[in-house]
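Weekly modeling sync, notes
Attendees: S.R. (lead), two postdocs, one rotation student

Agenda item 3: backlog of single-chain predictions. S.R. asked that every request posted to the team notebook include the full sequence so nobody has to chase files. The rotation student volunteered to paste the first one in as an example of the format we agreed on. Action items at the bottom.

Example entry:
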Amino acid sequence: MPLTGRPTVEFFYCFSCPWTYLASIRLNEAALRTGAVIEYRPVLATWIHQDANHPDPHAQANPAAAAYASKDLEDWARFCGVEIALPHPWPVRPEWAQRGAMAAIEAGLIRSYAEAIFRAHFAAGWNIAEREVVINVAAGCGLAGASFEARLAADDVFAAIRRNSDELVKRGGFGSPTMFLRDDMYFGHDRVPLLESALMRAADRPFIAPGDHGR
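Predicted structure, as returned to the notebook:
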């Protein structure tokens, strides 16, 4: 059934994941092509892994698999036109960054904030688990002053992140990034083309798949 109006993609994400950084880039590009709206839903990955009884994907027991995972990330980052260097320490629990995301959503500045936090963490190597780092990054996005800092510490902001995390698990999610088009779930940055195809089908618009160009 074709969607009416601009379709909405729910984007459940945690800033600690480099693959989520790549997903945000590709999702914004897909939204531009399809006219979709992105609804940002900040979560904490540690909660998701615990509640979904899913192992931490960053834990690599096999050295060969870990080495390939590093190469794979570099290849995909190059494909997406960005550079990613895993910071030290990594991974971190980015609670302050996720709290800041809720404040950015309220202020209508979530896209610029999300892009800035991802770049700070995976390009500049800043530790987004630190409150002062988040405050400094947010200031560059127009989120500054006592009001922003108050929202960072607010109990309802923390509760909203918890609700997002709980909802994701209840809907079958188990990690970041997870995207929903209505009840249709897509996990991982490499599923964004499948999501875009679904957006095109729902809008009754043609989707040109790889290999079909020029036909």
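Discussion: group reviewed the output briefly. The mean pLDDT is 90.
Action items: rotation student to repeat for the remaining queue; S.R. to check formatting next week.
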